[in-house]
Amino acid sequence: MMIQHSLVLLGKQKLDWRRNGLRHIEKDEILVQTIAGAISIGAELPQYNESDVTDSNPHYPRETGYESYGRVIDIGESVTDIEAGDHVLASYGHKNAEIVKANKVVKVPDAVPYRHALLNTLSCDAGKGVLKLQPEPDDRVLVTGAGTIGLLTVHFLKNYMNVKHIDVLEPDESRRALTYTFGAANSYSDREQVPTAFYDFGLECSASGNAFHTLLKSLKHHAEACILSDGNKELFCLNEDFYEKELRIVCSSDGWDYQEHSRWFFPESVKAPYLSTLFEHEISSDQLIDCFAELSNQTIRPLKVLVRYL
Known about the structure:
Layout: E1 3-11, E2 14-21, E3 29-39, H1 41-49, E4 62-63, E5 68-75, E6 87-90, E7 97-101, E8 106-108, H2 114-117, H3 120-133, E9 140-144, H4 148-159, E10 165-169, H5 173-182, E11 186-188, E12 199-204, H6 209-218, E13 219-227, H7 240-244, E14 248-251, H8 258-270, E15 279-284, H9 288-296, E16 304-308
Parallel strand pairs: 9-10, 9-12, 10-11, 12-13, 13-14, 15-16
Antiparallel strand pairs: 1-2, 1-4, 3-5, 3-7, 3-16, 5-6, 6-8
C-alpha cells in the first residue's frame, strides 16, 4: 500500500503533513505520483492567513493547493485512454500521490515541461473570463493587476483572441516589466495614468477595490468588464461610473474546459518560453511549510512558487 503525504491546514497559519494509506483504485480511477506542484499565492495565502473576506468562518482541517503534475503509476480496469507512465495534470494539491477519476485529469505530452504544463489550469481560468467578453482584435482592453492570473490573461488575449491593444495597470515595477514580455502595449504604474472612457473591455485581476474603480472609470459607455480576481482580499463596490455609463459586469470562476484548453495551451506554451518566468521561486515539497510562513511575512514576494516532489 502506498503512503500518501498530504499537507493540511489545521488553523490560522498552522500546517502539518498527514500520512494516510491509499486505498485500491476503482475501475474508472488512476493513481498519480506527484512530480511537481505549485502554490497559487492569490488563492492560498488568504486561506493560510485566515484573511479571506469571502470565508469569515473557515472550517478545519482543510486540504491545501490545487495544481499538481505527476506520473500515472496504476490505472483502473475500465480506463482506456491513459496508460501507466503517462504524465497528467490534476487538482489534488499538495500531496505526494493521489487517486483521481481518469476523466478529470489532463494528459500532458512529453514535449511539454512541467513548468509550462502547471500553468494550464490558471490559463484556462483566465481564458474563460476573456471568452465571456469576446473582444475583437481591434478592441482596446485594460487588465488591472499583473499577478499570475493577470499576465496569463494578457497572454490569452494576445495569442488566442489576437487582441492588438492590451494595457495593464500594475504598481509593482518588476511585474510591469513582465507585462511587455507577455504582450502589453502600455503598463501603468499609477491609477492617474489610466485614460478615462477609453477601453472597450476590462478584466479585473488585482483583487484591489481601487483598481476596480479605476477599471470602471477607464471603460467607454456601455462597455463590459469581467472580474477574474478571487475577491478574497477586498470587497468590491460599484461606483458612479458603473451607473452613469451603464456598464455591464460579469464574473468568472474556474476554467471553461481544462482538457480542451490544453489542446491550445500546450503547443502555444512551447513557443512562449517566457511563461516559465512566472515561477519566481522554487522549493522542494519538504520546504512547503516554511515557504508559506515566508510568503505570509513577506520575506519573499514571488508571483508563483514551483514545488518539486521528485
